[in-house]
């Protein structure tokens, strides 16, 4: 009977603990695949130079774009057309730069998207077709060939006295416009170890990620190296290769740790604060000296039948405001972000004045955060 009571009590404790664990999910936790990059799994940038033909008189002026003229002559000569001494004056051709990203492990024969941007003084690429253009990597080797009609997101129209331009008609895109001709030699499955690179470097996050991986595998296969990287080693008794291991760990959730930082964009007046920003007890007063000068000139007319002239009499109204209605506001020490923002908003100041206030608090040593001005 006593053993039956203990079994029932233990079952109740286990059920209660499961309810508590279920009711308290981790806050702001992210998957490892969303906060880290795996070594070798990345895009590669490609670039090429080509010609777009078929434009309706909106191409480059050959006299002001000599590179377009030289490229057109070289292309025609390769096609068996001799243009030596000829006066080329077409405006249906434009020189363009072609860019693209080659995804990791893209096989030969696959297609990728390409972006087209005018290089000369072309007014629009609407209706144009890109001719065969090799796309090269950083090593100078051609990895893809681009060709096809261009789709643009803007247009330009003009007459003798008016012109309208919407969007950017000198850049466009070709969906699946490049054919991959060469694969990148990288064998991920044969690797026994690789590095995981955090997108937002942080020592605490790197350690948490390594601990989460080790808890899943049951042995120390992950080692934090620095704020950016964690080295992952394939266990000796693991039933699979490094790809299987990455598949198992990329769904693990880790709560990233963020530094106390304030981002300020003085151009637009945007302020972004992290949740760990804290302020020591400080009193703030904000007041502006505003001088308003209003000119309201009046016209003075002479009396009827009088020998006078109509004159303008100046009238100036000067108003001075010293912001005397502004009061001192007290911000308590170590307040959370919500109360900090509420206290600053209570001062009734705009974003640009708030930037000056945050910088003044930082100069006083009362702001425990880093300010980064963009």
TrEMBL record:
<dbReference type="GO" id="GO:0071973">
    <property type="term" value="P:bacterial-type flagellum-dependent cell motility"/>
</dbReference>
<dbReference type="GO" id="GO:0030288">
    <property type="term" value="C:outer membrane-bounded periplasmic space"/>
</dbReference>
<dbReference type="GO" id="GO:0009428">
    <property type="term" value="C:bacterial-type flagellum basal body, distal rod, P ring"/>
</dbReference>
<keyword id="KW-0969">Cilium</keyword>
<dbReference type="GO" id="GO:0005198">
    <property type="term" value="F:structural molecule activity"/>
</dbReference>
<keyword id="KW-0975">Bacterial flagellum</keyword>
<comment type="similarity">
    <text>Belongs to the FlgI family.</text>
</comment>
<comment type="subunit">
    <text>The basal body constitutes a major portion of the flagellar organelle and consists of four rings (L,P,S, and M) mounted on a central rod.</text>
</comment>
<keyword id="KW-0282">Flagellum</keyword>
<dbReference type="Pfam" id="PF02119">
    <property type="entry name" value="FlgI"/>
</dbReference>
<comment type="function">
    <text>Assembles around the rod to form the L-ring and probably protects the motor/basal body from shearing forces during rotation.</text>
</comment>
<feature type="signal peptide">
    <location>
        <begin position="1"/>
        <end position="22"/>
    </location>
</feature>
<keyword id="KW-0966">Cell projection</keyword>
<dbReference type="InterPro" id="IPR001782">
    <property type="entry name" value="Flag_FlgI"/>
</dbReference>
<keyword id="KW-0732">Signal</keyword>
<keyword id="KW-0574">Periplasm</keyword>
<protein>
    <recommendedName>
        <fullName>Flagellar P-ring protein</fullName>
    </recommendedName>
</protein>
